[in-house]
Amino acid sequence: MRSIQKQGGGGHRLGQANANPPQTHQQATSRWGSFGHKNAVMQNLLDEQFQLCCYSELRADEEGLGYHIEHVENKRQNPSRTFDYANLAASALDSAQDLQVFKAQGDVVFGGHAPGKQAACDMLRLVSCHRPDCRRFFAFLSDGRVVPAAGLKPGEQDQAQYTIDILNLNSPFLLTRRRQWWDELDALYEEHLQKNWSLADLAAVDLVPVNSKLSRFFSLSRQFFGPVAESALQQHAPALI
Q: Which of 62, 111, 180, 230 is most buried, judged by most C-beta within 10 A?
């Protein structure tokens, strides 16, 4: 999970709505449902996230999937933050079509629509995508799993595992996609070693934005390349460090 740096306030209309925030879950649901400027807010969110899902770092558009506007702190739990841009993020999957497809295929939904996240979740245990150091809580394995990072304190390890579970970040769909991505990186890495090609250039391909978009699974790629990734980012995209 890469940390999202908020940019701006999401637009004038959202700011207007947030000036008089809802006070109950019913008000939040009703007013959010009738808010007619979600597309503009979504575009702002995707721009600041470089098109990556806020939780899984999937490029949903490359999968033929959509996004929804995620309330990191659920409307039901804190209705006053319904229109607070600092509480919003773009998360796979789309709220209508994608959910129907996943459920019809028997796939377990992940991210903001995961069953655990839809229920009341413990915000003191959830590692937010808006937390500046959120990436240090997680590590990726070659089999596609995301796990709590080594060296965390017991309380931090609990937070990491809780977040993985509540967001279903090890869903079969994500496991498959991350394993495929790791295998692709590994094959390219070995080829570059054998042919004495630049590893820094290889790392930059998937770590440096192109047309304001990042490649899928940015944090996995960053971990995979290690110091080479940090060097490439420092040279080409220091704002992402």
A: 111
